[in-house]
Amino acid sequence: MQHISPTQIHTDLPARISYLQSFLGVTSEDGEALLAAAPLIAPLIPTILDAVYVKLLTYDITAKAFVPKGTDYEGEVVKNVQELTLEHPQIALRKDFLKNYLVKLVTTKDLSPTSPFWTYLNNVGIMHTGLPGFKHRKNRPDLRVDYIHMGALLGYVVDICIGAVMGMDVIDNATKCAVLRALNKVVWIQNDLFARHYVKAEEGEVKGLVTPPSEGDKVEETGGCPFSGN
Fold this sequence. Notes:
The chain is mainly α. The chain is built from nine helices and no strands. Helix 3 (about 30-40) packs across helix 6, helix 3 packs across helix 9 and helix 4 (about 45-55) packs across helix 6 (about 90-105).
């Protein structure tokens, strides 16, 4: 029986990723499956982006995250959620952030526990909690998106990807299965890297372990949230 330290998986990101990968059965073949599928998935990304933002703009409770001015946006801002459309420049910019996020999911070559990829996904989780620490968020309103919306969005993205991959005629069923299983594992780890920054300390967990990123740390090289663009 393998021993897993309750304290370590809550305080050390590589240890947490290592445990999750072991539990979910993540292997090098998963990374290879995602890389192999990248050329097929890339042309679908614009369609996925439109579907995601149509969904996010369907509800006022999710659309309100897009009303404040985005980090790198210098144009005209909307006054309320009713003014938001897919064609608005601010939404177009934010779609670019999500595009970069989706590209990372299928082009990352290193899925080892110490890979910067997991630090990136962990920072995506941190920044949605409203915690300070990101240099590009300094002097801007707190970015807080409730976990229910983040979890629902991940589920929606996976559902779209399942439909897209299963509808591909150029790959066989074995390849489709490998791609979807790999994507599912990565997204569930992302889900955990959201949840760990929202949930209250569990029994046996050391409290106060959610540490903001170091000064200057960014989710993207250009800064910004891949979901809301802040």
